[in-house]
Amino acid sequence: MDTPIIEFKNVVKRFGEKTVLDGVNFTLNEGEITTIIGKSGTGKSVMLKHLVGLMKPDSGALFFKGQNIAGLKRGQRRSYMGRMSYMFQGNALFDSMTVFENVAFPLEQTTRLSKGEIKRRVMEKLERTDLVEMAHRFPSELSGGMQKRVAFSRALITDPAIVLFDEPTTGLDPIMADVINDLICQSVKELGATALSITHDMASARKIADKIAMIYEGEIIWCGDVKELDNSGNPYVEQFINGRA
Prior knowledge:
- The protein is of the alpha/beta class.
- It has eight helices and ten strands.
- Helix 3 packs across helix 4, helix 3 (99-110) packs parallel to helix 5 (144-156) and helix 5 (144-156) packs parallel to helix 6 (174-191).
């Protein structure tokens, strides 16, 4: 059996007296798009923040291709982080930069590519997301859907091996949400990347995911193929996906 690209083993994270992750066990397999669903405050974003190094577990461990992330040497950690990209829920665009400059920023910071090559790659991404005409505009001049597409373009500009999507369709109308879902499906597959998305949006989860996991009260209570979701046999999963109180 292949080693998962990412693995959580008995990960616990507490904030004061509140336990947010309570022994999380979860694997992310290479080349798959996996979606984590669950109510607000159940630890979805906290899991992502552990992966990008913004948080460390109080106990348990995270593994990258079988290696404990906490034990990676500086060069190995830099390599691990360099293969990962994060699309933030709030987009996290730089207000003082144009669309072009926002998307170019990761390449300028992490590569030694020429200005000409950076321009070529950025314009290619903007063409894919139908933003070429917006290249010299600022985020404040764009609609919410356009801002989301800029954030998406920036997340994929480095051709990452692992992409993390934090509520990628939040705040979007159903049509624009479907545009983002299509972009995720097409672009991640074309890159041959591995993706992890967290969402409340069941339409998004069903469309983009190969595998779905549900987190409830700090634990992964169900995980399986998206085709198995409606027959999970788990009452909490059924309650959530059918929107029942």
